[in-house]
Design goal:
It is a single chain. The protein is mainly alpha-helical. The longest helix is centred in the middle third of the chain and has 17 residues. It is built from 9 helices and 2 strands; from the N terminus they run H-H-E-H-H-E-H-H-H-H-H. A two-stranded parallel sheet has the order 1-2.
């Protein structure tokens, strides 16, 4: 929070346009949090990006800061987050500053992602940055802080190898088979996969 506040202060009193990028907090999908997000978005003209990802990768992901469980995202948390994102975009239906991106498209086609961000939010790359896909290189070039890297398993350039890791792990495949055939979220999983074109 301190680092974010200092960054915000520097941007407010600097000459460059103000773009403050953050991610939603852990419990963002609770009704009161969602209401607050929508109210602030409309009041302050906040741009909203909803990044979706193949649920097979999401539900078998791990987190360097949490060693208490095998997989980081519980099925019920995934379900609540997807439902909240749908409600968010339904309630912001006429709002122009929102965009849904597939993680897989961001990673495999950074140039198309840059075009979408430019068209929706009028954002463009800094003159000395040639691609958002070179994230690690860009941050090093800008001498930006990477203190939060340990929670993201280090800052790295976009890597298509992060897609579909569950396919080569028998434990993950068995876990997913149970979720897709026996769990109470199997219908939401099927609908989500169909809507976002995940084979």
């Amino acid at each position: 929070l301190k680092e974010s506040a200092l960054l915000c202060r520097d941007r407010l009193f600097g000459r460059s346009p103000l773009h403050f990028v953050t991610k939603r907090p852990y419990g963002w999908f609770r009704p009161e949090e969602l209401d607050q997000l929508i109210e602030r978005t409309l009041r302050e003209g906040i741009g909203v990006i909803n990044i979706v990802r193949d649920p097979r990768d999401v539900l078998t992901s791990t987190h360097a800061g949490d060693t208490t469980r095998r997989f980081y995202v519980e099925p019920e948390r995934w379900r609540a987050s997807i439902a909240a994102a749908d409600e968010l975009f339904t309630r912001l239906d006429a709002y122009p500053h929102k965009l849904t991106l597939r993680y897989e498209d961001v990673v495999t086609d950074p140039a198309a992602t840059e075009q979408a961000l430019s068209a929706t939010f009028s954002l463009k790359l800094r003159p000395n940055i040639d691609s958002i896909g070179r994230l690690k290189d860009n941050l090093e070039r800008l001498e930006a802080s990477t203190r939060m890297a340990k929670f993201m398993q280090n800052i790295r350039n976009f890597d298509p190898a992060t897609i579909g890791r569950w396919r080569t792990d028998p434990e993950k495949m068995a876990y997913l088979d149970g979720l897709f055939t026996k769990s109470d979220i199997r219908e939401e999983l099927r609908q989500f996969m169909e809507r976002y074109d995940y084979p």
